[in-house]
Structure prediction request, 181 residues.
Amino acid sequence: MDVTTDAQLLRAAQTDAGAFRALYDRYAQRIQRFHLARTTSPEAAHDLTAETFARAWLGRGRFRDEAGGSAGPWLYGIARFVLLESVRQGRLERRACERLGIELEPAAVEPEPEWAEELDEALDGLPADQREALRLRVVDDLDYTAVARELGTTPGAARVRVHRALASLRGRLTNPKEAAR
Prediction:
C-alpha cells in the first residue's frame, strides 16, 4: 500500500525527478479528463495536460501543503488557469486576425466553450485584490514573496488572498446557483 502523500512526493521532487513522475502518474489521467471535458478535443486536452504538469514541475518548490497532503487542489488550480489562458489566447489570436483581415480556415476556428464564459464571470466576480493575487501566483507563477512585493503586502496576506480566491472560484464553479445568491 502506497502511503507516500502528494506533499511528500513534491518535497522529494526537489532532488528526485522520479518523485514528480510518481505524482504525474497519480494525476495525469484525471487532469487530462478535466481538460477533455472542457475542450472535447483529445489533442487540446493532451497539450493542456502537458502544460499543466510543466508548470507544476516549475512551481514544485512553491507548493504549500494546504489540503492534508493532497496536491489535487493545487494541480486543478494550475489546470484551470492553463485552460483559461488557452481560451483567452485563442480569443486574442482570432481578434488579431479579424483586425488584420486574415481569414482563418473554418477548421481552425473553434467556438468558445460555454464554460469559458462561466470561468470569466467567476474570475470577474472576485474582489480585485484577490483576482490580482491569483493572477500573479498562478498565471505569472510568482512565489508568495514576489506576489506580496507586487501587491505591497506581506507574504502571509498574499497567501490568504490567493487561498480565498481559489476557494471562491471553487464554490462558484462547482455550485453556480449558490454563487449567484
Remarks:
- The domain at 1-112 is CATH 1.10.1740.10 (Rna Polymerase Sigma Factor; Chain: A).
- The two ends are 44 Å apart (CA to CA).
